[in-house]
Amino acid sequence: MNFNKLFRDARTHLRFRTSERGRVLKVGSISLTALLILSVIILMGIHKVDRTENIYASTEVRISDVESPTLLYKTDKPGLYKKAVALQTDVDLKVTGMVLRGTVTQTYSNETDGWLEAVYVFPLPENSAVDYMKLRIGDRIIEGQIKEKAQAKKIYETAKREGKKASLVEQERPNIFTTSVANIGPGEEVDVIIEYQQDLHYEDGKFSFRFPMVITPRFIPGTTQVDGFDGTGWGVNTADVPDAERITPPVEHPSAGKINPINIKVELNAGFPLRRVESLYHEIEKVKLAPVKYQINLINDTYADKDFVLEWEPEVGKEPNAALFTEEYKGENYIFLMVMPPNEVKAEDIRIPRETIFIIDTSGSMDGTSIQQARKALSYAVEQLQPEDKFNIIEFNDYTRKFSATSIEANPENIKSAKKYIENLNSGGGTVMLPALRAALEVQEESSRVRQVIFMTDGAVGNEAQLFSYIKYNLGRSRLFTIGIGSAPNSHFMTQSADFGKGTFTYIGSINEVEEKMKTLFSKLENPYLTEIQVQWNESGVEMYPDNIPDLYQGQPVLLSAKLQNNDAGKIQVTGKRGTKNWKIDLNLEGGAAKSGLAKLWARKKIQKLMQEYNTGNNQDMIREQVLDTALTYHLVSKFTSLVAVDVTPSRPVEEDLNTAAVPTNLPEGMNYEKVFGAQQLPQTGTASKLYMIIGFVMLLAAALLKTVFLRG
Length: 713
Prior knowledge:
- The protein is α+β, with helices and mostly antiparallel strands.
- Among the domains are: 3-54 and 688-712; 86-215 and 250-315 and 641-662, Immunoglobulin-like (Sandwich); 354-525, von Willebrand factor, type A domain (Rossmann fold, 3-Layer(aba) Sandwich).
- The chain has 14 helices and 36 strands.
- The strands form seven sheets. It has an eight-stranded mixed beta sheet. Strands 22, 23, 24, 25, 26, 27 and 28 form a seven-stranded mixed beta sheet that branches. A six-stranded mixed beta sheet has the order 9-35-10-11-6-36.
- The protein is globular.
């Protein structure tokens, strides 16, 4: 805003061509009075908006007044604090074979003296199938029902107006969800219990899963604001990200301390003896209950600010080369199959020269440990290049810059220059990804070299669908490999980008992992391990996902989820190419372990495939109906369905006000608040900063008007 221009315009309007001082004073006085009245009206409106959207609805207290553990926030008044919504999360994870069943209990405590609606935006695994929710109020349990999204929202809003307790769980992205809880009374606690299913990750002989705890603040590209959304976060809806408010929860300033404590308990039943069970980023306590079973708990005070990753390895000689699980659900049969190709070395393996394009994110969200990890990973990667290779480096934030105008040879001089360039990379600005992808994919020279694009980022963007569409239609002969950097990367963006890019996703959560994980990645990049993979079934009508199996790299298994027409599918044959040689394996689909939840995992994978097509703009109306039908049939939350639970008994008198409380989150560990939000950005949940800024502006304008009046007089 140009204040000087405003002052000049104000003075121009008051320059009446008269020599009568009284008339000037009179006109100035009337104008000033009108301005102040208008300002008061505006400020009253702003104050009202702040009151209904801010979680600080209670009276101010001093620390000495607090008699029990309470979540407090600073006010603009020294020594005075306000109470808010306290959130406690308990996570119970049960692992059996290749399947995980998760239960997340969110306890909302209203520490204010008014009635609240709590709105909490939170992450779940990107491959989770959310299928159950219940609302617990004291001893009463209200089970959620899956409904079409608009219908569920209408049911919830009606209950909220009528003073009934209600809960609504909505999917914003496959890995971002929103829980809304209406009519929590003063001093009251309400539990929202959410359950989901997911399959595990298996690679290089290691099983693992990642439970995300916090959402990295998303950069929202685009300039055109879109009206009609009612989120309570700080994001601004744009043409590129019309639901920005729904995926950008308020972030607590680090100076206020950690919030949102979390407990995680894991019951691990691997099905085979283990030689190692390890949490990569948190301290744990593990108890061996049996040769194949462990109980694992987080120890020490833990807050939701970085992802929890658990990894385990079979004892030597116990590594599985195949796994089969089956389920009968509503008269239909489902299987989950893992096949590990033999780890043989190809005699004809000869390293093929490569053109490697490195894309590195240097935006503000990468500041801190993330940019250190990225620089180290990139420097290591450049060192692995061979003289017959070519390479280039593309960095991006608000702008995209290339190390070289075109790809250059990986000779010692160029590598030395590249490493010096990498050392000087600093973070700051927005996460504008699309121009960087264009720079990497638009110009692809015909060459015998294998073309590989390695993308290092935390994925902190809101316009994923736009980026997926671009990758799908512009990949050409390139292969895209994503490297997730930081304590809480956007796994939905990373995995789907690698899927569209026919590559792989690698997660680096600690600077100590850089060398090991980059070494593993580069050994895979030498050559795909298995290509042109096909599955032949001995019956028709099998619906299998993925329906188009990507190239596999060393240490990766073939994973299949299928719905069968018959109870006995007999045998299947998996074929592929190992270099120039044919590869195949025959499998007898008998003796699989019975496991519940496979039907919902299959349905989740079907929805994922449909949403890939939806996000790239193909037949959206028809795809929406298919997603809706699948989600309703299998009782799953999706882009078009939500879970809603309503108590039948009103609890809030309708004459009592209801304030909306946007529950804040922590900044992911290792991130720099000022680099993400700007040095002048005040904590969103700190003081009434907008109000004070406008008051200041009004006072400045009033002073300018008074000065003008008297000078002209």
